[in-house]
Amino acid sequence: MPWLPVVIFLAVCTGLILIRVFLGPTSPDRLVGLDTLNTVVVVSMVILGIAFKEVIYVDVAIAYALLSFVTTLFIAKYIEKGKF
């Protein structure tokens, strides 16, 4: 299984990111952690697509990345001004 080191690395990264999300001292720190976690999820979907030779995983990863970006913008605007 050549993907095992990649899976282990992504799991370690996810654990570190979750620590930042839950223990972040400020809201922007937590937002950056959440955005980083979304990026790791997108990378995981692309790696799954490569591993299983299925294009649908890459398509879903692109859609998820777009929704993640828009959500991050809305949350950042909320944090900055306190309202949408």
What are the low-pLDDT stretches, counting only 5+ consecutive residues below 50?
none
Main sheet, how many strands, which sense, barrel? none
Helix-and-strand structural type: mainly alpha
Count of helical stretches: 3
Radius of gyration: 15 Å
How large a portion of the residues is in β-strands, by DSSP E?
under 5%
Distance between the termini: 47 Å
Mean pLDDT: 91
Question: How many strands in all?
Answer: 0
In total, the number of domains comes to 1
Shape: flat
The percent of residues in helical segments reads over 70%
Question: How would you characterize the overall build of this protein?
Answer:
This protein has helices at 4-23, 27-52, 55-81. With 84 residues, the chain is mainly α. It has one domain. The chain is flat. The model has no long low-confidence stretch (mean pLDDT 91).
Topology:
Blueprint: H1 4-23, H2 27-52, H3 55-81
Helix pairs in contact: 1-2, 2-3
Features:
84 residues
Describe what is shown at a glance:
This protein has 84 residues and is mostly helical.
